[in-house]
From TrEMBL:
Belongs to the arginase family. Agmatinase subfamily. Pfam families: Arginase. Keywords: Hydrolase, Metal-binding. Gene3D superfamilies: Ureohydrolase domain. InterPro entries: Agmatinase-rel, Ureohydrolase, Ureohydrolase_dom_sf, Ureohydrolase_Mn_BS. This is Agmatinase. It comes from the Eukaryota.
Length: 289
């Protein structure tokens, strides 16, 4: 439904964005498969007793109409679509597509809220300057966001980073900006509930955006993704991170990089659907039994 025809109360928009160049393609089919697997979701969160559909007006308002031939134009289309969505008072929950989408979404979010804090869950920092000669792509969104002043860099945390890199310290640039970097080695064999207590203190009362790349999870749990890296987070830790965002002033969330052809079981998309539901359950004004 067109968001402008709805009551301007809070509702939520999982949107389909097509993938760009990536190690494994077919990311563009992720949102479709997540929608299919979301049929398993019910109305209440048994773990937290959240009742999202009693708390908020929730709607899937469909797909952003992107240009599959022009990534820059696609970013423009996403930015303009989210300006309209945010103008209604919506807190958007977005299904990607690849992580490029975070850049134009955050452009629109920052126009409304000013520089935001960021909880970024990912195997990769996505702070490259150039990828294959291009400034805009799935490996560059958060560098572009910093350059444009979209992020409050003292309120950015990146969790689960790992894998081989192009230099001895792949996360030096992030730390130089003031980001808190939590490599996956700091997450192994432990609950992340204490970490999220520290993150909540870091984020304070300001606006926060949550961006969750499914490749943050170990490929043993989520093989259907574009750039898998071994030794990742568990689904339990993913849920701990999201539930740990309860109480934050969340102004938007995304779940990206599901690639269904690389997981014929559908479990990666099912995990993505459940993580999105967990995000819905920690939004402001949530009712808990």
């Amino acid at each position: 439904m067109d968001p402008e025809t709805r009551d301007p109360g809070t509702y939520h928009s999982p949107s389909r964005i097509l993938g760009s160049i990536i190690y494994r393609n077919s990311i563009r089919f992720g949102p479709r498969q997540i929608r299919v697997e979301s049929a398993m979701l019910r109305a209440y969160n048994s773990g937290t007793r959240a009742a999202p559909y009693e708390s908020l007006v929730v709607a899937d308002i469909g797909d952003v109409n992107v240009n599959v031939y022009d990534l820059k134009d696609t970013c423009k289309r996403i930015r303009e679509a989210y300006r309209k969505i945010l103008a209604t008072g919506c807190i958007p929950l977005t299904m990607g597509g690849d992580h490029t989408i975070a850049y134009p979404i955050l452009q629109a979010v920052a126009e409304k809220h000013g520089p935001v804090g960021l909880v970024h869950v990912d195997a990769h920092a996505d702070t490259s300057d150039v990828v294959l000669g291009e400034k805009i792509g799935h490996g560059t969104p958060f560098r572009r966001c910093v350059e444009e002043g979209l992020l409050d860099c003292q309120r950015v945390v990146q969790i689960g980073l790992r894998g081989s890199g192009y230099s001895a310290d792949s996360y030096e640039w992030s730390r130089e900006q003031g980001f808190r970097v939590v490599p996956v080695e700091e997450c192994w064999f432990k609950s992340l509930t204490p970490l999220m207590s520290e993150v909540r203190a870091q984020m304070g009362s300001g606006p926060v955006y949550l961006s969750f790349d499914i490749d943050a999870l170990d490929p043993g749990f989520a093989p259907g993704t574009g750039t898998p890296e071994i030794a990742g987070l568990t689904p339990i830790q993913g849920v701990e991170i999201i539930r740990g965002c309860r109480g934050l002033n969340l102004v938007g969330c995304d779940l990206v990089e599901v690639s269904p052809p690389y997981d014929p079981t559908g479990n990666t998309a099912l995990t993505g659907a459940n993580l999105l539901f967990e995000m819905l359950c920690v939004l402001p004004k949530m009712k808990y039994y």
